[in-house]
Amino acid sequence: MAAPLENQPFKRKGDKENSEFFEKYLLEIYKKRKAQGLEKLIGHIHHFLIQVELGNAKDLIAEKLLHTPFSYHSSFEHEAFRYHILRVSEQNPDLLIREPKVELNDNFYHLNMIAPKGRTLPHTRYIGEAFGVSDLKQVYQILYNQNQVQFQEELAENPAKHSTSWTHPSTFTNNCIGYIEYASGEKHYQKDNDWNFDDETIAKFKLAKDMFKTFSLEQYVGPIDHFATRVYCHDREHAILEYLSLSNYWFWGAYNIGDQNSSTNVCRNLQGLPESQSPAKVFTANNTPFYVNHIDNLPCPTENFVRNYGRRLHHIAYGVKDGFIGAEENNYKNVDYVVDQLKKAHMKFLDHVIGSCEEGLKQIFSQKSKSSLLITEYIQRCDQFDGFFTKENVAALTQAAGLDDLIT
């Protein structure tokens, strides 16, 4: 276990060795963002943004209503996009699903088109997460003028109320980071006008949410636990450091997953509030690049995914309340019940539930969503397990996802 580092409020965990470059700039980034005031200006995640093909939003919304604690809130239009708000509570990040109103030829389209499987849905990808900030102009001034961060649009002298400023897609992850001025209370978004689904679609949404409740899933499935991006091995350290320079997250630690030739790297928000308000950000990368596989003959599920779909978000995990159903000796945990209920709703999974409460946690991956290309994970942390994950579980999940990538 790594020793505590200067300017870091916890003992780092993991067995993955980082370069001298990484260790040097990790501390420099912590010092700089604190001196600039970014740690206080940036709050918790305000919302996540997923883009889908025009017409696919209603299918993804119904899917999320049935599979997660999100409820449909409302829809609106702004410029070239239509947005749909899904919400758990005012305290948790919203999930925004947007669809282009016209065919686009933008950065995200081109990022998808250079990926063999990504081009099957050329407008579909996870865009990024937006942080609530106390002063958008000040954050923009620090990041743009002082730190040379590139944004998709220049911030106006008097920015529109509730507007979000997004960075350009990262060279290392293809994800963006957004910033929206927000203190607390009700969330609002910049919009041109409200928009409404037809009655038939709203009825479909109600049926999906009713099924979630009928299966008693609202008692067990909680908000987002973590979200995970896959990158190339040579981008791992740069992706982590870049994220830390743009957020108030900390590098919690990294573990080698030897039998899958990969590492899992975790960044966490440690501001003292429930982590569901700013879920952990995970970066997964190969240990060796794909082009030496014909020499080493090692598994390559992580980098195979990146080569096929491009650098992008791989999955979003939802926490399952700790506990068990029925007699304790039956060992029927809450996550087992959740999975069995979702199977009744025809949700497909990549494998059985992996792990045990003796090891600390149980978890499972779904098949990729046909609407978003994202995997949904369910994870039950037993007895307040704080190790975040186990190497054995990650290896099994990675292998299952890798096999799925080969056939989808």
Characterise the protein shown here:
The structure is a single chain. The protein is an alpha/beta fold. It folds into 2 domains: 40-199, 2,3-Dihydroxybiphenyl 1,2-Dioxygenase, domain 1 (Roll), CATH 3.10.180; 214-407, 2,3-Dihydroxybiphenyl 1,2-Dioxygenase, domain 1 (Roll). The protein contains 11 helices and 17 strands. Strands 1-11-12-13-10-14-17-16-15 form a 9-stranded mixed β-sheet, sandwiched between helices. It has an 8-stranded mixed β-sheet with strand order 7-8-6-2-5-4-3-9. Helix 3 (57-67) runs parallel beside helix 6 (199-214) and helix 9 packs across helix 11. The longest helix is centred in the first third of the chain and has 17 residues, at 20-36.
